[in-house]
Write a structure and sequence with these properties.
This protein is mainly α. 60% of the residues lie in helices and 0% in strands. The chain has helices at 2-11, 35-49, 53-63, 71-78, 91-94, 97-102, 106-118, 124-142, 146-157, 165-168, 182-190, 195-203, 209-224, 229-236, 241-254. α11 (182-190) packs across α13 (209-224) and α12 runs antiparallel to α13.
């Protein structure tokens, strides 16, 4: 899941900036983790411990206030509500990457992705976005053929993944929905040549950059087998100990996030 968190950090300074180029610094003075990273670690904690996910999401929200949470999530967490709010926002997809790394059958991935979503995002599109993100990671771990991954995801989720980024980019704008984020993030991965290239693809769309790069980054990590060490080291400096510990515990149980484990030791 580190690939998703690093994508979030890199994209944090480009959210809604409308950039339409792949030529930009990966890290800037204002680069930071956002709600995407916080809630991704919360989902990882849920998978590791079996605690109630509603309680965990709200606890992480309180531990990391002001990280760019969506309005409906903010109200839900602030008021400590228990019922979901029928959202199809991309918040369900941005936090789903740990599911794709943790489970060994596609049936488990789909089940647990839905469970990770419905505590807040119980709209069918919110569920589909979380499932598609987790499934893309599951397939990317096992299938080293982008064409086959594309066909599997199109067949399973009904997304159109055939429009090239060069055709999407000119008219694409900020979109907080699953259906306006997840397919584009998957395409950013499908057109990539490396982890870094995938992140640059996602951010170059000029939309909800941190979430696009978060979703793309998780898939790219799975497909390329880790994170370049220099990128991982830069990201580590921007995370606090609790989030780093969550990544470390998840990595220890489900696999390495980089080609050299010591980068997060």
């Amino acid at each position: 899941m580190l690939g998703a968190i690093i994508g979030d950090i890199i994209g944090s300074v480009y959210e809604a900036a409308g950039i339409k180029t792949k030529d930009f610094p990966l890290f800037a003075p204002r680069s930071t983790f956002t709600d995407d990273s916080v809630l991704t670690v919360a989902v990882a904690d849920w998978i590791l411990t079996g605690q109630d996910l509603t309680d965990l999401l709200q606890a992480y929200y309180r531990a990391y206030p002001g990280r760019g949470y969506g309005g409906m999530f903010h109200e839900w967490a602030t008021k400590k509500l228990r019922a979901p709010y029928n959202s199809f926002g991309n918040g369900s997809a941005m936090r789903a990457s740990p599911v794709g790394f943790a489970y060994e059958t596609i049936e488990e991935v789909l089940l647990w992705a839905e469970r990770s979503s419905v505590v807040t995002h119980n709209h069918p599109e919110g569920i589909r976005g979380a499932q598609a993100t987790a499934a893309a990671i599951y397939y990317a771990r096992r299938v080293k053929d982008r064409g086959r991954i594309k066909r599997l995801l199109e067949s399973q989720f009904g997304y159109n993944l055939s429009t090239p980024l060069d055709e999407i980019r000119p008219s694409y704008s900020f979109d907080e929905t699953c259906q306006g984020t997840v397919p584009q993030a998957i395409i950013a991965f499908l057109e990539s040549t490396s982890y870094e290239d995938a992140i640059r693809n996602a951010i170059s769309l000029g939309g909800d950059a941190d979430t696009l790069a978060c979703i793309t980054g998780g898939i790219a990590e799975a497909f390329y087998g880790g994170i370049p060490l220099d990128i991982a080291a830069s990201a580590k400096q921007l995370l606090d100990p609790k989030l780093t510990d969550g990544i470390h515990r998840f990595r220890d149980r489900f696999g390495l996030a980089t080609k050299d484990a010591t980068i997060f030791d």
